[in-house]
Inverse folding.
């Protein structure tokens, strides 16, 4: 299909472009001009076109936990959020520590996926933290990074080896930073609120100790380290210093860490339970500062679907995690752009060109001629309230249900194909 | 509002009640008086003093007060305000006593029914008789006074305003509007 | 009188007036205990369920007696926590009880926030009988009632809480109630058992019992759980006794008319010296009596508020 998007404001941080013009799509790629008249002309007046958003941190749950999410429903949800590429964490059942598992995910994504699915492989076999997984074979099968997300590598020697070994593949090691002994039994941020609510706390230091360790190991090995879901002021400062030193460290945060604080836990609503936990205003401010000065490279969702049954429990017994695909863009626009923390260009960069660069995704995260035609079209003025029944993810565990937003994706194009529009929903 | 008893008339009614009680109770030793919270308490006090003065008793008649809040049958009714639980204080053994239960106004009879339930939980009196200053009529339960001052049937509320001590401002009146 | 709540989940969110209402209405219930028949029909036909997911004899019995003295039909269900994990979820269990037309559900649970979870999901009134490290509101109320009874007013009273503040819902509810009434609250214990942010609740922190106990009007001694030692929160019971046992000698440093309180069950010879427990200063048994009166008041007020809410 030949597509022309007319008179649209184009924002492409990869090329420093911010202008109004046309975009042409042919054979799934962005082209200078079409070889034949367009099959479809899209009126882009009043809208913005940006490179398709890339979410480097999500849990699609397939295989093994299809009751929470499948590749099909997860990618539908992503498409609705304006996300064209999702990285999926390997803590599926079984875990993604072998080539067939990677191939299975890619095959399912090919068949049923609405957006690009890039698997992340395990760092260690079975994510047990004991022996390195066959990272070379995993890379060949198609992984874009390695991570033992959720079960951090406790042994420093293993982490050191992982950072060293992955150098030859130019793969980033995504580290879930948590000292599990320090956070043991914790279910929310440690502080005044955890004391009042009578819940066990997870101190900031449980994250920061591991951020420090991993930065030191990065320095030791020269490997490529990407810190997942940064939630504390201390972590931001550690990464800032590491970057000053010129170390090969990047990091991400999630919308809830710049939007919410642990005050929200007060009603024991388990949709405010995630790991790392919601922190304090001081941390939220530091996260914003880190986004502003470039310390934090990416905004990712940590989309973690859980069923209603699992979440409708005692706060202690409910699993950690919230869904995030469908609120990523709106929260970024409302909390960062509207509040003048980031320019629109910088905000978009953290979900497009930055992840593409860090994880070496060729021809993505850009609207340059020759790039894959992954495009998100945004209406900054569309107002809506997030309703539970509108959520496309199989799970509904969002703390943002009932929240009012201004600005969201109105069309998602993946590889030159329109997969979702606000008007018609998922396009088959 | 319409006054139906003034201070003097109240005193007369109480005297009448006291005499009637004495007429029917030779066994003054076993007599005890219990006032129902809150307006029945002052009526009971006056009555008790009157009996003591008529008989020139050296010893005070055993005196108690009781609150029926926890025994009311209308708490299930919607819209009821949260009632204050008032003191119940019966500092003597009620068993084998001839109890005179005193209230200011007798109306539906429900207060008295509740008061009987309260008394039951304190023991087994020999008998319980009811004395009221005013009978307003319109009973909802088969309960009748044994000693009654003024009979004044009305659907409007009757208000008994008694000070702790006998006073010129004491009066009983009918509220004309609700 | 002001009390218009569906549930009693904690004392944090009650205002002084509401707490005063409960305390005031507990008094006539206590007077009732001197009668030969200690019972009133206020809750006739109401079903009260004691849902206990944590072993407790005292609190459960106290609620049971309180319910029975108000003539409610009371059922007690003691469930091991493990069965929740295995089978029916807490909300489902409670919904079953509601389907049986329970009017008031009293819940004790090892996990904080469980009463809140039930309150959100059920129409029945929920009373928190202790949830994890969160709150134990009726204990806080009965402690306050006892102090009112003995000291007439709370304002300016120096109250010392001794022991494991970190894991104590009793301490938490006491602090909320006492600070609302203007008491000067002190806490004492090893730093490992005192939350770092506790001073933000307006209490004074001590690590040395001999200093903390000086001139106090009330000493409320918390039970020390033996398993805290395994978590390395203190080196040994022996050392705990040495540093934090309330002894006669230490008590002598408090005001002469000091009250000694303990929520029970006591570890005699550990957090409290036997001589202190049996001394005239101790009001530990009266706390038990007062507990019934306070719980009757809570049950009664909630039942009244329910009726009121129906229209």
């Amino acid at each position: 299909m030949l597509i022309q998007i007319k008179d649209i404001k184009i924002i492409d941080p990869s090329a420093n472009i911010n202008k109004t013009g046309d975009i042409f799509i042919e054979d799934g790629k962005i082209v200078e001009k079409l070889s034949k008249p367009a099959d479809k002309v899209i009126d882009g007046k009043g809208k913005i076109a940006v490179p398709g958003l890339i979410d480097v941190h999500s849990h699609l749950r397939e295989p093994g936990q299809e009751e929470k999410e499948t590749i099909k429903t997860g990618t539908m949800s992503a498409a609705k959020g304006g996300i064209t590429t999702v990285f999926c964490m390997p803590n599926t059942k079984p875990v993604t520590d072998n080539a067939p598992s990677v191939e299975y995910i890619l095959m399912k994504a090919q068949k049923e996926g609405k957006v690009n699915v890039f698997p992340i492989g395990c760092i260690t076999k079975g994510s047990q933290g004991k022996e390195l997984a066959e990272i070379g074979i995993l890379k060949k099968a198609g992984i874009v990074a390695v991570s033992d997300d959720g079960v951090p590598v406790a042994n420093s020697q293993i982490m050191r080896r992982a950072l060293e070994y992955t150098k030859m593949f130019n793969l980033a090691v995504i580290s879930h930073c948590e000292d599990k002994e320090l956070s043991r039994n914790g279910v929310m941020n440690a502080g005044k609120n955890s004391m009042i609510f009578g819940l066990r706390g997870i101190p900031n230091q449980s994250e920061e100790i591991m951020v420090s360790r991993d930065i030191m190991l990065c320095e030791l090995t020269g490997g490529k380290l990407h810190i997942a879901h940064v939630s504390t002021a201390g972590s931001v400062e550690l990464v800032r210093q590491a970057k000053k030193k010129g170390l090969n460290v990047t990091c991400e945060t999630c919308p809830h860490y710049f939007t919410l604080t642990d005050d929200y836990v007060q009603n024991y609503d388990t949709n405010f339970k995630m790991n790392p936990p919601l922190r304090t205003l001081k941390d939220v401010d530091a996260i914003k500062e880190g986004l502003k000065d470039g310390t934090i490279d990416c905004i990712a969702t940590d989309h973690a679907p859980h069923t209603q049954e699992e979440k409708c429990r005692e706060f202690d017994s409910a699993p950690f995690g919230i869904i995030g695909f469908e609120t990523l863009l709106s929260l970024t626009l409302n909390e960062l752009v509207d509040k003048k923390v980031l320019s629109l260009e910088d905000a978009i960069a953290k979900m497009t060109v930055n992840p593409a660069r860090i994880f070496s995704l060729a021809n993505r995260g850009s609207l340059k001629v020759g790039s894959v035609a992954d495009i998100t079209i945004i209406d900054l003025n569309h107002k809506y309230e997030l309703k539970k029944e509108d959520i496309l993810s199989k799970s509904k565990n969002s703390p943002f249900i009932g929240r009012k937003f201004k600005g969201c994706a109105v069309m998602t194009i993946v590889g030159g194909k329109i997969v979702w529009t606000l008007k018609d929903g998922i396009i088959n | 509002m319409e006054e139906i008893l003034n201070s003097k008339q109240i005193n007369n009614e109480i005297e009448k009640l006291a005499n009637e009680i004495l007429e029917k109770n030779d066994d003054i030793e076993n007599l005890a008086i219990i006032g129902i919270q809150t307006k029945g308490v002052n009526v009971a006090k006056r009555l008790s003093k009157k009996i003591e003065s008529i008989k020139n008793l050296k010893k005070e008649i055993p005196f108690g007060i009781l609150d029926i809040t926890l025994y009311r049958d209308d708490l299930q009714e919607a819209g009821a305000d949260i009632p204050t639980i008032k003191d119940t204080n019966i500092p003597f053994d009620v068993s084998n006593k001839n109890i005179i239960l005193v209230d200011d106004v007798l109306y539906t009879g429900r207060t008295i029914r509740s008061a009987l339930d309260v008394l039951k939980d304190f023991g087994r009196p020999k008998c319980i008789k009811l004395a009221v200053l005013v009978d307003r009529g319109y009973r909802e339960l088969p309960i009748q006074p044994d000693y009654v001052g003024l009979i004044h049937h009305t659907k409007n509320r009757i208000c008994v305003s008694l000070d702790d001590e006998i006073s010129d401002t004491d009066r009983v009146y009918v509220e004309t509007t609700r | 009188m002001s009390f218009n709540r569906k549930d009693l989940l904690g004392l944090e969110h009650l205002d002084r007036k509401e707490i005063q209402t409960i305390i005031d209405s507990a008094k006539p219930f206590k007077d009732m205990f001197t009668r030969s028949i200690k019972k009133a029909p206020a809750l006739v036909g109401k079903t009260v369920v004691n849902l206990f997911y944590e072993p407790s004899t005292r609190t459960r019995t106290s609620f049971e007696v309180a319910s029975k003295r108000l003539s409610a039909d009371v059922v007690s269900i003691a469930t091991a926590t493990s069965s929740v994990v295995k089978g029916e979820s807490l909300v489902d269990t409670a919904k079953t009880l509601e389907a049986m037309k329970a009017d008031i559900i009293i819940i004790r649970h090892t996990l904080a926030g469980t009463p809140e979870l039930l309150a959100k999901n059920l129409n029945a009134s929920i009373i928190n009988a202790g949830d994890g490290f969160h709150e134990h509101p009726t204990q806080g109320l009965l402690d306050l009632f006892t102090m009112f009874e003995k000291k007439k007013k709370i304002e300016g009273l120096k109250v010392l809480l001794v022991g494991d503040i970190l894991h104590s819902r009793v301490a938490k509810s006491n602090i909320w109630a006492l600070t609302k009434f203007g008491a000067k609250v002190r806490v004492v214990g090893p730093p490992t058992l005192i939350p770092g942010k506790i001073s933000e609740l307006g209490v004074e922190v001590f690590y040395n019992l001999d200093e903390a106990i000086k001139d106090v009007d009330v000493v409320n001694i918390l039970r020390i759980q033996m398993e805290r030692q395994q978590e390395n929160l203190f080196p040994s019971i022996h050392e705990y006794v040495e540093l934090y046992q309330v002894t006669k000698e230490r008590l002598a440093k408090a005001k002469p008319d000091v009250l000694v309180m303990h929520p029970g069950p006591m570890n005699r010879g550990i957090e409290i010296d036997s001589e202190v427990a049996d001394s005239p200063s101790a009001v530990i048994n009266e706390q038990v009596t007062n507990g019934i009166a306070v719980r009757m008041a809570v049950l009664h007020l909630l039942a009244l508020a329910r009726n009121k809410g129906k229209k």
